[in-house]
Amino acid sequence: MEPDLSALETVVVPRTRDLGDNFEVRRALPTTRKRMVGPFVFLDQMGPHGFEAGHGLDVRPHPHIGLATVTYLLDGEIEHRDSVGSVQIIRPGAVNWMTAGSGIVHSERTNLQTRQHPSSLFGLQCWVALPKKYEEVAPSFAHIAADALPVIQGDGASAVIVAGDFFGKKAPVPTLSDLFYVDVRLEPGARLDMPADYPEQAVYVVEGALDLGRDGIFEAGQLLVLKPDTAVTLRGGGFAPTRLMLLGGEPMDGARYLMWNFVSSSPDRLEQAKEDWREQRFARVPGESEFIPMPDLPGKPVGYP
Fold first, then answer.
1. What is the pLDDT of residues 155-166, one digit of tens each?
2. CB of 302 within 8 A of CB of 259?
3. Are 269 and 130 in contact (CB under 8 A)?
4. Are the beta carbons of 35 and 27 closer than 8 angstroms?
5. What average pLDDT does the structure give for the chain?
6. Helix (H) and strand (E) counts in the chain
7. Taking the model in full, what pTM does it have?
8. 209 φ/ψ sector (left φ>0, alpha ψ -120 to 50, else beta)
9. Do residues 166 and 127 touch, judged by C-beta distance below 8 A?
10. What span, in angstroms and rounded, lies between the C-alpha atoms of 153 and 214?
């Protein structure tokens, strides 16, 4: 029998959900094939979507605990508001990093000025589980401008270090664990070597096609989870540019449980968060009067990995 020379542990083809107004979201993590990669427990692709004038994104205030949310846009803009008082419009190339810790509430909307004309939205949102010693840290929010992020480029390839440490460069984002999140662009045929810097690594194909040699060519909308400690060469496939997000990091320090918008190493803590939201004990978002009610969630929380 020939040895298995594939670099891939698994390939995830995300399911698509319609959030209303034909606004589609592709969920690459979590799935039954893969629950998490490093500390990344959630990965959504938003859009691409075009809104008519008078319409836009309306994610009403909702809570989080035990994680950090990461918003990174490729097109359009979102107005973020949260219960620590942050009000921030995020645009392509910048990073919104919100550390929920012991508990935070936030909303994400298209603001009134943008709604006055047709608009578009395309981006990625992740949840990063926090290490046990930081799960109950005080909530906080950080916005990092696009021009503050380190970049490497050459020979038809470029990489922006969105968060964490990769390719020998570190982003000024207040992460609390060893991870990486990188925006890569490849011209057709351009190559970039992805080192095995972390035990758990994955590639999400955002646009175009990725040529992984003997493993084949992968179109947009797929998450390619690499085998542990495996380096690969990324190559632009097809006749159009390729855009990728590289992500991963060190394995988590024990199991995590996920229920609705909550992540914790303790199932009991999830139950407490659910009750706190039902009773509206979380801090409110200034300027917001709406909220997403606690849904009826039968069964036990999902355990990771």
1. 999 999 999 999
2. yes
3. no
4. no
5. 95
6. 2, 26
7. 0.95
8. beta
9. no
10. 25
Buried b or exposed e, range 11-33, using 16+ CB within 10 angstroms = ebebeeeeeeeebebbbbbbeee
Count CA atoms within 13 Å of residue 95 on its CB side.
Answer: 27
Q: Closest Cα partner for 176 from 280, 70, 85?
A: 70
Model confidence over 195-230: pLDDT tens digits?
A: 999 999 999 999 999 999 999 999 999 999 999 999
Containing 268, the helix (H) or strand (E) segment is helix 267-278
CA distance 280 to 6: 50
pLDDT digits (tens, 9 = 90+) for 230-281: 999 999 998 999 999 999 999 999 999 999 999 999 999 999 999 999 999 9
Instruction: Write the burial class of residue 214 (CB in 10 Å: 0-12 exposed, 13-18 middle, 19+ buried).
Output: exposed
Give how far Cα 242 sits from Cα of 45, 238, 273, Å. Answer: 16, 9, 41
What is the distance between the alpha carbons of residues 1 and 216, in angstroms, rounded to a whole number? 21
First to last CA, the chain: 31
Alpha-carbon distances, residue 66 vs 88, 149, 175, 262 (angstroms): 22, 25, 13, 7
**HEC assignment per residue over 154-218:** ECCEEEEEEEEEECCEECCCCCCCCEEEEEEEECCCCEEEECCCCCEEEEEEEECEEECHHHCEE
Cβ neighbours, 10 Å, residue 69:
22
Q: How many residues does this entry show for the chain?
A: 305
